[in-house]
Amino acid sequence: MQTDIDPRSLIGRKAFDRKGTKIGTVDEVYLDDATGVPEWAAVRTGLFSRDAFVPLEPSEFVEDSLRIPFDRALIKDAPDFGVGRHLSPEQELQLYRHYGLDSRSEPAGSDREFGRLAGQDE
């Protein structure tokens, strides 16, 4: 995803799954603690539904909407940590696993590779 985008501009935007099906509306954006780069979005999945966390990488901001490259069912089944609170590293790992993403495949220059922080040797 574009890293130069203002995270506040994502709030209120429509979110769509990989098939173009509307999932909901971006409710909140979560920044990486170390870099300040937008990392996760909470998407309100319906009027009386909860928010689902979605990764902003590899999602794309296209035509004023967020395109998430996962199926709607997978997104709706994402772990629910509630919104408005900080995501812990453990919660982030659960989300990475849920989406089948490698938490260590972060942009070059990132100093928060979980493997290294966990004390694993390179």
TrEMBL record:
What GO biological process, any one, is recorded here? photosynthesis, light reaction
Example of a GO cellular component annotation carried by this entry = plasma membrane light-harvesting complex
Database matches in Gene3D superfamilies: Photosynthetic Reaction Center, subunit H, domain 2
**Record's compositionally biased regions (Basic and acidic residues):** 101-115
Q: Where is the PRC-barrel domain?
A: 8-71
Location of region: Disordered: 101-122
Domain of life, per lineage? Bacteria
The record ties this protein, via SUPFAM superfamilies, to: PRC-barrel domain
Instruction: Spell out the protein name for this chain.
Output: PRC-barrel domain-containing protein
Q: Which organism is it from?
A: Streptomyces atratus
Q: Lineage, please?
A: Bacteria, Bacillati, Actinomycetota, Actinomycetes, Kitasatosporales
